[in-house]
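I am writing to request your help with a piece of structural work I have in hand. I am sending you one protein, given as its amino acid sequence and as whole-number tokens for its backbone shapes. Kindly check, if you would, that the fold set down in the tokens agrees with what the sequence suggests. You will find the record immediately after this paragraph:
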Amino acid sequence: MWSEIGTGENKIYLSLVWHSFMVRKVVVIGMGYVGIPAAALFADVPSFTVVGVQGRSKRSSWKIDWLNEGKNPIGGDEPGLSELIARVVKKGTFKVIEDISTCKDADAILIAVQTPTDAAKRPRYESLKEVSQQIGRYMRAGTLVVIESTVAPGTTDNLVKPILEESSGMKAGKDFFLAFCYERVMVGRLIKNIVQLPRIMGGINEESTRRAMELYVHIVKAKLYPTDAFTAEVAKVVENTYRDVNIAFSNEVALVCESLGVDAYEVRELVNTLPNDPTNPASNPVRNMHYPGVGVGGHCLPKDPWLLKSGLDTYGKFKFFPEIIVHSRELNDSMPLHVVDLVEQALAEHGRKLKGAKVAILGVAFLENSDDTRNTPSAVLYAELRRRGAKPVLHDPVVREFELPFTSNLDEALTDADAVILSTKHREYLTLDLGELRKKLATPVLVDGRNAFSWEAASRAGLTYRGVGKGRREDESRRLESA
């Protein structure tokens, strides 16, 4: 049973039986887009000290050094994060080390490691399993363990809990406490989302949930919602699957509009004129059609529908195939291939084959003004262009490192290219002079995957323009060609 304590949006629900959960040291395992801002926020809480744990590798060693120097390793626009990291490092309340044995005197341990899917769309839990074993080996009685990594439904109770119990020799829910409290971060607003968005607290038992809420009330100003771990796991993957399905609808509409010779972005704008009417939620006419585009990237959306399906396949009480979810995911995966088709069609108008053509891909990050390359559609574009015999060149002004070769020199990418694909809407690309771009290209083809340019402006610059969802009417084509 829960009673409500607090006022305003920052409410905490505590058990009627009060048990004081004193936190002095928090360990955050995994210094990525989730772990870094969470660790920094906890380190800014009076009387808290935070230790981040990150293994050294070729790609991550520099991050450890930067963080310990008070520098922000996350590139792009992240309001407030650099200042926060600098402040807590200067205060001496935050440091990053490699040694996970620091868990031995932690009051709370947060797990924020990556949980990807494999080629067969099944969860890959190597990091989660390894970290759980190591935590269990070192943690003391009374410790709260929180999983922030997104996992398939059933993972907390059926994978993490048994590993922790076996390696620690303690009983979950009695000797130590375990909860799944999922993050809602988004690149570009990491701090804002952690602090301002409601948080779901899912413990393996009531005491685990309560202790998790007592921890997160220190950094979350919005409402905390208590539930069980399994329900919280389902909520997380459904939340992201909801967005993925909605994007798939917009992408399918974009293909319809291309075929009909209509601008999908104008259609979206007209559809979304239906207003929000909070006075009658049951019959609210509001529409919020998403943007179509070159593809869906990031750590969550490309995998979370598969995590949901994995949980269903493993623990579902009856056989059921989630067709809309699966087909939406497949449609979103297909969008980079459609963009390559657009390149091929535009090149054909100039008597140029895709095979052997130099194609500049503008943007490696999946999101504008960010350095996040996880599951970026640009990698699929690159692979598909290579498969069809083209010579793709990747460019990005923000990204520091990527598994594929890329350049930060825009002239190098554009000069003598036969086609340009705008894959990421970085601000640097929005200021491109299309007339000057035309002069650099060997073949004047521009394919717009993010609605960054207009067909009219590109045509006036002498470029053959294609865009996702940008169908052309024949009368417009003739009018502009004669202008």
Observations:
- The longest helix spans residues 229-260.
- Residues 1-8, 12-19 have pLDDT under 50 and may be disordered.
- The first strand starts at residue 2 and ends at 5.
